[in-house]
Amino acid sequence: MGLFDDLLNRRKQEQEAKSSKRLPPGQSLTNKFPVLTYGPNARFDVKTWDMRFFGEVRPKSDEMTYEGEIGVLAADAYQLYNELFWERDYNRVIANASPDLQEAIRAQAGTTTFDSQEKAAEAVNAVITHPTATKTVSNDNMLRWNFEQFLSLPTVEILTDIHCVTRWSKFDTTWVGVRFRDFCDTFLTVSPQANYVIAHCDYGYTTNLPIEAMMEEDVLLTYTYEGQPIEPDHGGPVRSFVPQRYFWKSAKFLRGIEFSADDKPGFWERNGYHNDGDPFKEERYGSRRGFF
CA 79 to CA 45: how far, in whole Å? Predict the structure, then answer.
């Protein structure tokens, strides 16, 4: 009876959302967060990870230096959080962490041994969200940011709906990250020739959008979903977030942003998906069907 009631309530919510034009055509609501990735997840290494900006762009000033605050153990805690989803023995993952990180986990949770992956992840996340000490990090290269530098940037929180081309939608999701438009305004001079933004990810995956779409106020370079670091299945540690497009345009395992004068269709765009992907226009597929 409970399952039946839940189904009826979801159907009712769907009808209300369709009537109010909140739910795009052809979509169905879900309370879950389905995992859809072509290819393997990318392994995160905090020591080598960086985010690069290139193409029709230059630093706002050659003399510019940025300084920001970050928890002393934050970057290592993000690494550890990510590792919890790669290894079955999550307690062994924590046991292999640095003594300082283990002590910080113990201070937050009272233990370093947990009876579920979820509890272990919550304890590691507490080290990120409630640091006992902070440090200043600096960057003098606005076109390249390591993970600590990136974490120290100002963030915003976005509450919004997401829509997948495979016809599911999820309402009222919460994301935290660096607003793309603010980052560009603060640190970069984007050439007037730049008409498109190309997201570059691990394993050579790309996706493309007009620069106007990327400059919307709800577009983020995000690393937090529902108060937790983004899991590997959902593109962590960092993905782009473009909620006004189908979700494949929010690129997982993000590593670089290219500003381009010319459009450069990405992996899915070359293999049948629409070049723009507006869910309210139901732009699922393009003229070339590729895989489909």
Answer: 7
DSSP 233: G
The CA distance from 31 to 149, in Å, is 34
What pTM did the predictor assign?
0.92
Condensed to tens digits (0 to 9), the pLDDT of residues 177-233 reads: 999 999 999 999 999 999 999 999 999 999 999 999 999 999 999 999 999 999 999
Going across the sheet that includes 206-210, the strands are: 144-146, 50-55, 254-260, 196-201, 206-210
Exposed (0-12), middle (13-18) or buried (19+): which is 41, by Cβ within 10 Å?
buried
Rounded to an integer, what distance in angstroms lies between the CA atom of residue 106 and that of residue 48?
28
Kind and range of the H or E run holding 139: strand 134-139
Strands 168-179 and 156-163 come out as antiparallel
Structural tokens at position 157: 């929180």
Alpha-carbon span 138 to 145, nearest angstrom: 10
Q: Which helix (H) or strand (E) holds 33?
A: none
The count of other CB atoms within 10 Å of the CB of residue 174 is: 12
Each residue's pLDDT tens digit, 68-124? 999 999 999 999 999 999 999 999 999 999 999 999 999 999 999 999 999 999 999
Same domain, 37 and 97: no
Last residue within a domain, chosen from 132, 164, 179: 132
CATH number of the domain enclosing 267: 3.90.420.10
Are both 176 and 261 inside the same structural domain? Answer: yes
**Which residues does residue 158 pair with via DSSP β-bridges, in sequence order?**
175
Segments forming the whole domain that contains residue 206? 25-67+141-292
The stretches of the chain forming alpha helices (DSSP H) are 2-19, 74-83, 90-95, 99-109, 117-129, 147-151, 180-187, 211-214, 267-270
Residues 269 and 161 both lie in one domain: yes
Q: How far apart are CA 47 and CA 130, in angstroms?
A: 23
